[in-house]
Amino acid sequence: MGKKVLIIDDSNTMRKIVTRSLRQAGLDFDAILEAGDGQAALDVLAGETVDIILSDINMPVMDGIEFLRQKQTDDKIKDIPVVMITTEAGADILDEARSLGAAGSIKKPFTPDQIQETLGSLL
User: Fold this and answer.
1) Which letter does DSSP use for residue 93 in this model?
2) Which intervals hold domain Response regulatory (predicted)?
3) What is the pTM of this model?
4) How many domains does the chain have?
5) Is residue 123 included in any domain, yes or no?
6) Is residue 122 in a domain?
7) Are 66 and 101 in contact (CB under 8 A)?
8) Domain CATH for 108
């Protein structure tokens, strides 16, 4: 069975940029799923199994930090690694994400090499 990734970002354009960067980085996923916010991601994860999640922090409805909190309470998805992709440069918000189980972070703008380096060790 091939690997699946879930990209969570409220920007359709950013989801497409991440998708293109994954391919440019040589990370070959069989399925790339998308969600526009944390709640939509939880809805996707109720019916799908993924190998890794890439999530923005600042989103409407449910942001990336609340998504991490909710994810921790669900035994089915709590062990899926999450990498935060964000413009947030503040150490406080990234520390909070790590304390809630984020496996890493990538700052926007990013290169395919940065994605490959961060995700390579998690897959």
Assistant:
1) H
2) 4-123
3) 0.94
4) 1
5) no
6) no
7) no
8) 3.40.50.2300
